[in-house]
Amino acid sequence: MNHIDRPELEELLSAYIDDELPERQRTQVKRLVEHDEKIADDLRYLEKQKELLAALPVVSAPGDMLNGVKAAVERKAVSADADRVEARDEAPRRIYTRRLSATAAMILAPVGILAWVVWTIIMPLSNPGSPKEPLVGHGGPGVVVKSPGISFPLTASLQLTTPQVISMGDFINKAIYKYNLVNFTANISAGDASKTYTITAGREQIVNLLTDLAGVWDKCDSTSMTVHGRAMSAHARVENITPQQAIALYQVDIFDDPFRLAGNFDRMNRILRSMPGYGIIETGPMTAIELPIPTSGIRKDQPEQTGTVNNATLFITITAP
Amino acid sequence: MQKQLDNITIDDAILVRRCREGDGVAVERLIIKYQDRIFNVILKICGNKDDAAELTQETFVKFIENIGSFAGRSAFYTWLFRIGVNLTLTYCKRRTKAPMLSLDAAAGTEAGDGAAQLKAFLADKDSLDPAMVAQNREIGEIVMQSLGRLDEDHRAVLVLRDIEGMAYAEIAEALDVQLGTVKSRLSRARTNLKEILDTVL
After folding, report:
1. Residues in A touching B141 (Cβ below 8 Å)
2. pTM, whole model, 2 decimals?
3. Cα dist. A197→A157, A169, A317, B42, B80 in Å?
4. Of A13, A71, A100, A104, which sits 20 to 30 A from A136 (CA to CA)?
5. What is the ipTM of this complex?
6. Which of A89-93, A194-198, A230-234 shows the lowest per-residue confidence on average (mean pLDDT)?
7. Distance of CA A124 to the CA centre of its chain
8. What DSSP character marks residue A316?
9. Of B21, B36, B161, Cβ closest to residue A58
10. Cα–Cα distance between B86 and B191 in angstroms, integer?
11. Which segments within A162-232 are labelled E, that is strand?
C-alpha cells in the first residue's frame, strides 16, 4: 500500500493539513490514513504542531513604532543616498527589467565612456588646478558628496524663495566664481525681487555649487526643484526639496531614473509634512547670509575654466515671497 | 488602476492610493493597521525583540520610500510582508548566530511541567485547548527556541503559514519563490521542527 516515498508522503500530509491539495490527492491521503496507523499518527502530530504555532501569543509592536518610523523617514529625506527601488510586486517583470537594464548598461556604458574620451580629446583640456574631488564643508551637516559616475545630460530648475534675494544672489555669485563657473553661467537679473542663473557645466561642478548652497538653504521660505525631460511636457517636481536631495538628483547615473527619484523625494517630503505631529522648525529671526570666502583670496592667477564635460544644466531662480 | 485595485481590500485600496498621493495620514493608518502583524512575524523569524523592532521600523520606512512603485498586482499586505521578510532573512543570514540556550539543558531543569504538558499535547493524549498550552511561558520558550534552530528559509515559511496564516500562493508571492518550493520547504520545516521538539521532550 505504501509505495510512496517518505519525503513525498510528508509533503502530502503537510499540504493536506493546510487544505492545499487538489481533491484527488486529498482522497489519496484519506485512504493512506485509514489503512496505516503510523501515517494517521503522523498526521495528528502535524495538526497539533500547527495548532500550537497558530496559538502562540501575538506580541504587539513597541508603542513608539510610529514615531520611530517618522524619525527614520525624516533622516532618509535628508540623506544624500539615492536608494534604488528594491521592493517591486511583479517578480517576472523585475527579472525582465534587470536583464533589460543589464543589457542596456552593457551597451550604453562603453558608448558613454567612448563619447567622454572623444570629448576630452577634441575639447581644450580642463584646468589642471581644479579640484578632482567635490569640496565638502560649506554644505552643512549630513551632506556627503560623492563623485558622480557615468551620467547623462540632466536639466533641472531650482526655485528658491527668500526675503534675502540680494544676499542670496551675492552668495551664488561668489560660489559661481569659487568653482570657476563664470564662463558657464548666464546671469539674468530681473531686479531686486528675483534673480535667475543658468549654469551649464559638469555635474561635479554643479554638485559643488549645491553643496555650498546647502549652507544657506534654511534662509529660504520655500525650495523646489523641477527635473526636465527632453520633451517639453516631461518633468518631475520636488516640493520642499532638501539640498541633499538636490545633490542626489545630480548624482544619478545611467542605472537610475532621475524622474523616479524625484518622484520618490517629492512623495516622501509630502508624506512627512502631512503626518500629524510633524515638527515645524522654528527658524527665529532671519540672520544675514554669510558669503563663502575663497580660501586663496581672489583668484586672479587661476586660469579660466575653458572646458569641462558639460553634461548638466541648472537653472536657479531666486524670488522674494 | 481599477483592475489593479481589485487585488486589495477596499480599505487598503483607498489608503494606498492616498499614500501614493503623499498623504501622511493614510501612511499612518496603514502603519497602525499592520505594525503588530509585521512585528509579530519578524519577531518569530529573528527571535529578538530589539532586532524585530528595528526591522519592523525599516520595513515601514521602505514601504514609504517605495509606495510609488507598488502597482497593485499583488495584495498590498503581501507586498508589505515581502519587504519585512526579505529584510529579516537578510539580517538573519548575516548575523553571527548567538549562542542558543541548550534545549537539552532546559528540558532537564526542574521546570519540566511545561515540557511534559507540551509532549502530551503533541501526542494528542489530552484535550487541552492549544491556546492554553501556548500561553504557558515555558512552552512558549521551548517552541520559540525550537523555531530558532530551524534554517531561516524554513522558519520563514512556517511562520508565514502557521502564525500569520498566509495561503501558499501568498507565501510564494511574499518570498518570491515557486509554489512547489513553498510546499517542500514547509514540509521540511515541519519535519525538522518535529525532530527538534522530539529531542527536547
Report:
1. none
2. 0.70
3. 10, 9, 6, 51, 44
4. A71
5. 0.86
6. A89-93
7. 34
8. E
9. B36
10. 24
11. 185-189, 194-201, 222-228
Interface of A with B in 201-260 (CB under 8 A): 260
How many Å apart are CA B27 and CA B15, to the nearest integer? 7
Given pLDDT bands bounded at 50, 70 and 90, which one contains residue A187? confident
A49 vs B190: CB contact, 8 Å cut-off? yes
Which of A52, A59, A89 is nearest residue B43 as measured by Cβ atoms? Answer: A59
| Angle of CA points B16, B17, B23, to nearest 5° | 85
Cell 507598488, residue located: B70
- Kindly state the cell numbers that stand for B36: 503588530
Chain B contact for A98 (CB, 8 A cutoff): no
Q: Decide if A278 touches B, using CB distance below 8 A.
A: yes
Instruction: Print pLDDT tens along chain B (201 aa).
Output: 444 444 556 688 889 999 998 999 999 999 999 999 999 999 999 999 999 999 999 999 999 989 988 888 788 999 999 999 999 999 998 886 654 444 444 444 444 688 888 888 888 766 778 888 888 888 888 899 999 999 999 999 999 999 999 999 999 999 999 999 999 999 999 999 999 998 888
B156, B182 Cβ separation under 8 angstroms: no
Of the candidates A76, A85, A86, A83, which has an alpha carbon nearest to the alpha carbon of residue A242?
Answer: A76
Hey, of A33, A69, A81, which one would you mutate to test binding to chain B, going by the most B CBs within 10 A of its CB? A69
Nearest to B28 among A20, A66, A269 (CB): A66
The DSSP bridge pattern shows strands A154-161 and A185-189 to be unpaired
Check if B67 contacts A (Cβ < 8 Å). Answer: yes
Residues of B in contact with A271 (CB under 8 A): 19, 22-24, 27, 64
Q: Hey, of B25, B59, B69, B188, which one would you mutate to test binding to chain A, going by the most A CBs within 10 A of its CB? A: B69
Question: Quick one: which H or E segment has residue B118?
Answer: helix B113-122
Q: Which of A249, A182, A253, A168 is nearest to A212 (CA)?
A: A168
Number of A to B CB contacts under 8 A, please give it.
187
Task: Return the exposure string of B81-117: e unless at least 16 CB atoms fall within 10 Å of the residue's CB, then b.
Answer: bbbbbbbbbebbeeeeeeeeeebeebbeeeeeebbeb
Distance from C-alpha of B28 to C-alpha of B10, rounded to nearest angstrom? 17
**Amino acid (one-letter) located at B156:** A
Closest chain B C-alpha to A10 CA, distance in angstroms: 6
- A46 and B140 within 8 Å at the Cβ level: the answer is no
